Amino acid sequence: MRVLGVAAGGGFPQWNCACPNCQGARAGDDVQGPLLQSSIAVSPNEKDWYLINAGPDVGRQIESFAALHAGPGIRETPLAGVILTDAELDHTIGLLSLREGSNLTIYGTETVRRCLNISFPVMPMLKNYCSWEWRSLYTDVKQKVGGLGEELGGTMIIETVPISSKPPLYAEANNGVHDHEDIWEVGLLLHNKRSGRCLAYFPALDRITPEIEECLKQADILMVDGTFWSEDELVKLGATERNASDMGHLPISGPAGIMEKLSYYPKQRKILIHINNSNPILKRGSKEIETLRQKGIEVAYEGMELEV
């Protein structure tokens, strides 16, 4: 299974936070330039590709990765589907750019499906533009993705892990009260049945539950939330009065931070993704990036590519 993305594959150049007010100040020659929105592309056979989340930069991301280019036939595309981890605008608004008469399979929880039919009605809006099939993800069911058969290496298995029952701000404003049992945000375990290996993909984490911990233990490669270095990162910058946990993110540093948590998992690779542009780990040669290196933790970068 090949994984490409912002930090994990060719041509998806961004791990930027989906939260409001996450606009940090970065400048100078030692800092990376502006990044695109968080997304990765995954293929079980290097023929059929699935995007995990589709943000506003999806067009530029597809253009920058040749394997996702359309053709050779009219309306022919190697893009087979989109797997949504939540209904945040920065992870779903790119669906509008993918209409173009395409036949895609969209995966997401039932809560996300309802949201995309009511609060942000992408599905009704596009029903006359494209033929999309919706497949719901359930936290107690492993979902097969891909159509060539496991014996040909054409199928991957998705395991869905609940993270949060907090709706996006726009859905909260439109619908008022939500059922506290609604699953608005999930992490994913992507299993390659052929190799027996799996990737844990958690672009946002506000806590690590026993269920999440169990998933992190069994995965071979971890790609987890690295949005903020510190709890009060944006507060110190004067950008907001909300700290990292208020926005649904565990900070990297601190006794209960992501860095400390990852130190318990002796995995082949541990990679931080979804990095906000206020985060000092984006600065070359920073003491924060050196601390991560000493801990054996990687920072996602443009052009990164993984085999699982």
Count of distinct strands: 14
What's the alpha carbon Rg, rounded to whole Å? 18 Å
Helix tally?
Answer: 9
Give the H and E element order: EEEHEHEHHEEEHEEHEHHEHEE
Category by helix and strand content? alpha/beta
The CATH class label is Alpha Beta
Q: Unreliable runs, pLDDT <50, ≥5 residues?
A: 6-29
Mean residue pLDDT: 82
How far is it from the N-terminal to the C-terminal residue, by CA?
5 Å
Beta-strand percentage range: 15-25%
Strand order of the largest sheet: 6-5-4-3-2-1-14
Work out the helicity level.
10-25%
The CATH architecture would be 4-Layer Sandwich
Q: How many structural domains does the protein architecture include?
A: 1
For the biggest sheet, the summary is: 7 strands, mixed
Polypeptide structure, described:
Strand 9 and strand 10 (197-202) form a beta hairpin. With 308 residues, the protein is of the alpha/beta class. The protein has 9 helices and 14 strands. The N and C termini lie close together (5 Å). It has one domain: Metallo-beta-lactamase, Chain A (4-Layer Sandwich).
Write the layout of secondary structure elements.
Layout: E1 2-5, E2 40-43, E3 49-52, H1 58-63, E4 79-83, H2 89-92, E5 105-108, H3 110-115, H4 122-126, E6 133-136, E7 143-145, E8 156-164, H5 169-175, E9 185-192, E10 197-202, H6 210-218, E11 221-225, H7 233-237, H8 258-262, E12 269-273, H9 287-294, E13 298-299, E14 305-307
Parallel strand pairs: 3-4, 4-5, 5-6, 10-11, 11-12, 12-13
Antiparallel strand pairs: 1-2, 1-14, 2-3, 7-8, 8-9, 9-10
